[in-house]
Amino acid sequence: MLVEINPQNPEPRKIRRAVDALERGEVIAYPTDTCYGFGCDLLNKKAVELLYKIKGMKPTQQLSFICRDLGDVARYAVLNDHEYRIMKQYLPGPYCFILDSTREVPRLIQSPRKHVGVRIPKHEIALALVRELGRPIISSTACRPDSPPYVDAGEINIDFKGLGLVIDGGPGGETPTTVVDLTEKRARVVRLGAGDPAPFE
Known about the structure:
By secondary structure, the protein is α/β, with parallel strands linked by helices. The chain contains six helices and ten strands; from the N terminus they run E-H-E-E-H-E-H-H-E-E-H-E-H-E-E-E.
């Protein structure tokens, strides 16, 4: 089901409709400040498994999640002063930061080393969703494995079976986030993307 939502001023009733789908354990597609993403409720194991199935991902591939603010991040990831300063400077923005996870993170999305990827996108629809849901949304780029991201919500709606709802917020980007690992003393760029990697190199 395709639902158009204003990307600058998301309509509350439409956001509520998308959150209702998340709370039912469905997977949705939604726009972010980089690409369209697939999302589901962080705490719903069956929904996370469904996301893997819809996208055709291997269970070993890690997922990140969308937070509404740094307070939300601190509940699920270990934030020391150094990490906090970096994230405060670069978020919201086109970065995914890998951090040590807290016990609040479900095992299903933790890496074997108990790390987790977190994002705060600079996009009103994505932020409205996590605010209304009241907890993070699991996130993965809307694409097939080893293929470029989809930029058109209508095509996502047609090509990916099993989605509960697809939010059309206009054309999506073609470049995913820059991924930065902050779990060691020195920051390390893991994936080049939309965010400028220079500050971390």
